[in-house]
Amino acid sequence: MFEEYDVIVVGAGHAGCEAASAAATMGSKVLLVTMNMNTIAQMSCNPAMGGVAKGQIVREIDALGGMSGIISDKSMIQFRMLNKSKGPAMWSPRTQNDRMLFAEEWRLLLERNANVDFWQEMVTGLLIENNRVSGVKTGMGIEIRGKSVVLTNGTFLNGIIHIGEKQFGGGRTAEKAATGITEQLIALGFDSGRMKTGTPPRIDGRSLDYSRMEEQKGDEIPGRFSFSDTPLPAVQRSCHITYTNTRVHEILETGFDRSPMFNGRIRGLGPRYCPSIEDKINRFADKDRHQIFVEPEGWNTVEIYVNGFSTSLPEDVQFKAIRAIEGFENAKMFRPGYAIEYDYFPPTQLNLTLETKLIENLYFAGQINGTTGYEEAASQGLMAGINAHNKIHEKSPFVLKRSDAYIGVLIDDLVTKGTEEPYRMFTSRAEFRILLRQDNADIRLTEIGHHIGLATDMQLQKVVKKKEQVLGVLNVLRKLKVDPTEVNENLEELNTATIKERISVLQLLKRPEVGIREVMHMDQEILTCLSKYPEAVLDQAEILVKYDSYIDKEEKLAIKMNSFEDLKINSAFDYRKITALSAEAKEKLNKAKPETIGQASRISGVTPADISIIMVYLDK
To answer: Alpha carbon of 564 to those of 69, 430, 485, 577, 611: distances in Å?
Structure first.
């Protein structure tokens, strides 16, 4: 009935879709197995992509040849560039998306790929031969052979949904949990744990009074995630902001005795940075209000996502509390919020390729690794799909360094440090965030993506052209000079010091008060020379000028740090042989089996002195 596949992907969420698409695009024959063909690429939580640090990840996925950026652009109903008041390392694109259109676009894209086959059924186990995965087994007892398997099970592994005192099995509302895989993996020697996440109630937008809320419009000139020419929306839908109040908090507190969070029924750890509303009012009792984002679910639906009101309190308490929020006085509820507990596997059991250390050709991606967020999952799926393809075709592993991409930071953090709570990417996790900006993801990664056979020739040509144009702008800025008589009046208007002699435009642009567009309108020659370049090229050149010294400093630091990444360690190395190492270092290193000195240095409990001892030992 089934041929032997190169790659079998289990689960069709954000990680599974990227894994299947990447492996198939690179030439592997892929089977995507999902319990429900109608929920491929379902946005289980909020209908949005990107945000702080997450937007950088989506752009990196696009630059490498992944599809999340393109799908997000095609389904966007609003675009905003966050943190524009801060430096460019913090600028982060975010889209509000049409939930149904997002899923439809992903499914159609996968169906257009001739190398992707589909099967709708639950996978209950893996076929293992000589510590190597050889396929999967389904609930109907069907065995499907595969040279590699990528598990992207999301919140479905032994998932339990909690609403007040009610609890029932499920991986998502109205969808059953997945069983069998956890038990088999534990029997094979894997460690597992439990995590928790939650979602807010969904509301009928026709029952809300938006006049009592703050409108939050998209950017006047919308951007896009993809570096390709995806279409931009002619109009955008607004979101709105409102707030809880003391009355809302009082109502919520009446349900605390029935809360699964407070009475011990939920044991899994939830995300600290995105707590439920009951957790917020419990932990921050001094605050009399919390912000609520009112987000439309699409172009044509009236369904509203109440961002900031995630809860697992009883449904009657949720309903009463929702109606006490300003603008929600007559709110009608589509369904209540809930919490979900699920199994995950600590990611220290993986190599940097996301292949498991215990079972060859078996890869984990997404929430099974303890992460949270569509973007984090998609990037792991992309990397797992690439590496599964490379492994079975005897190609080199594909690993991104911490200085290459936020994706590199994410995977290195997971594999080296592990996580005991849902991991979310932040800009603060990246030590090279000035290098890892959202605007230069294509320049950093597209050539690499093209080399491995994922990014297209057209993508590469666009990057080559962009690099040439940026150099062209920089040459113009160095070459052209401005006279005090021509620009001093403009400089006074910009509240910056006047000049006393002719200087290059590049020198002028280094001033924080002076932007490239202000410079262009100071002098006709400058305007003529620069107006032929695209906006993205001008922005790139301006960033390179203004942050030149910071970029240079980070590049030098990255070179120094990467020298440790090039010092490989044999995976079979026994650290117990080095008597000078601390007992803690021996234990942590033998468990983690770091692939490089750099990775070893980032393991908690391993000191700089331990690293020096290892390097001396390896030299001998």
So the answer is: 33, 17, 53, 22, 10
Q: Same domain, yes or no, for 149 and 219?
A: no
Among 397, 420, 451, identify where a domain stops: 451
As a whole number of angstroms, the distance between CA 68 and CA 43 comes to: 12
Confidence band of 612 (pLDDT split at 50, 70, 90): confident
The Cα 429–Cα 426 span in angstroms is 6
What type of residue is 115?
N
Q: With bands split at pLDDT 50, 70 and 90, how would you rate the model's confidence at 565? A: confident
Average pLDDT of the chain, as a whole number:
95
Residue 159 CA, distance from chain mean position: 22
Tokens representing residue 102 in the block: 């997002």
9 closest CA partner among 202, 114, 151, 145: 151
What gap in Å lies between CA 407 and CA 236, rounded to an integer?
Answer: 30
Instruction: Give me the pLDDT at residue 609, please.
Output: 87
- In percent, the amount of the chain with pLDDT more than 90 equals 87
Q: Is the pLDDT of residue 272 over 80?
A: no
Per the structure, the complete domain to which residue 265 belongs is given by 202-337
| Cα–chain center distance at 253 | 34
Q: Indicate whether 332 and 393 sit together in one domain.
A: no
Same domain assignment for residues 191 and 212: no
pLDDT at 262: 84
Count of beta carbons in the 10 Å neighbourhood of residue 89? 23
24 and 148 in contact (C-beta within 8 Å)?
no
**Res 605: pLDDT:** 85
What are the tokens at 31? Answer: 């089977």
Q: Is the pLDDT of residue 384 over 80?
A: yes
Contact of 53 with 441, CB cutoff 8 Å: no
How many residues are recorded in the chain?
620
Q: Closest Cα to residue 413, out of 457, 443, 448, 376?
A: 376
pLDDT at residue 220 in the model: 96
C-alpha dihedral, 398 to 400 to 404 to 410, nearest 10°? 150
In angstroms, the first-to-last Cα distance of the chain is 56
Cα–Cα nearest to 411, from 371, 438, 358, 459: 371
d(CA 586, CA 580): 10
* Cβ burial, residue 67 (10 Å; 0-12/13-18/19+): buried
